[in-house]
Every structure is written in C-alpha cells, then in structure tokens.
Write a structure and sequence with these properties.
7% of the residues lie in helices and 67% in strands. It is mainly beta. It has a single domain, classed as Roll (Pnp Oxidase, Chain A).
C-alpha cells in the first residue's frame, strides 16, 4: 500500500552521490511523495505462522511546479551516481520547522520545462529513490 505525502510550504535540497554538488529548489508547488513497499508473505512447511519480508522499496517524488536556479538543471545532466534529497516541511512562514524526509540513492527520471505567455519558465520534476528515512 502506498502512502502519499504533500506539503503546502517547505524546502527541498538535492545532493549528488558524492555530496560535491548541491541545489536548492527555489520554489515548488504541488509536491507529492509516494512511498511503496513490496512484501513477500509466505509460510514455511510445517509452520503455522506466516513470515513477511520487504522485497523492494521505492519512493517516488514529483514536483508539479518547480522554480530553480541553473544548478538543478546541471545536476540532472551530469549526475552519474545517486541523487539524494532532503525535503522539509515549514509552518508559519518558515519560522517553525516540522517533519520531513531524507531520500537516498535515487535518480531524477524526468525534467520538463514549462512556459506560458506572461509567466516565468518553470520545471516539472519526477525522481525515484531506493531508501528513505523520516525525521
């Protein structure tokens, strides 16, 4: 079963696998994070209890509307290792920080450039990550 998280205001930082390059998502709207786990449930012979094990995990991160500086585009083009992301929720204009997620060992799958008459160029981003932790 997937869990979906969405925040109205927060921050998202992206890091390359070696930590040598980082980028801050300047402004983002319509952020979605879906955490998926696939379980293997089986009962060994002559046993009465079932055993459950996680066989795969994947976190899918989407930004519906993202404004960023050029460093995020460069990271998308040049990252050959894993991408890591730190997402943090902020309340009351960024004064109080609450929970968030660290996403590790991932990749940025798609980066779309969107523009319309009279508006700034914005991005749509989708990535998937293999490991996560909540804070």
């Amino acid at each position: 079963m997937a869990e979906v998280f969405a925040w109205s205001e927060g921050s998202a930082y992206f890091f390359t696998g070696a930590g040598g390059q980082s980028a801050l998502a300047t402004f983002a709207r319509n952020i979605g994070l879906t955490l998926n786990r696939e379980w293997n449930k089986y009962r060994p012979p002559r046993q009465t209890n079932y055993i459950k094990k996680v066989v795969s995990e994947q976190a899918t991160l989407t930004f519906g509307q993202l404004y960023s500086q050029f460093d995020l585009i460069q990271m998308f083009e040049s990252a050959t290792g894993g991408i890591h992301c730190h997402i943090e929720h902020m309340v009351t204009g960024g004064v109080v920080q609450t929970g968030g997620f660290y996403l590790y060992s991932g990749e940025l799958n798609s980066l779309a450039h969107n523009g319309s008459d009279g508006n700034l160029l914005n991005l749509t981003l989708q990535g998937s990550f293999n490991v996560w932790s909540a804070h």
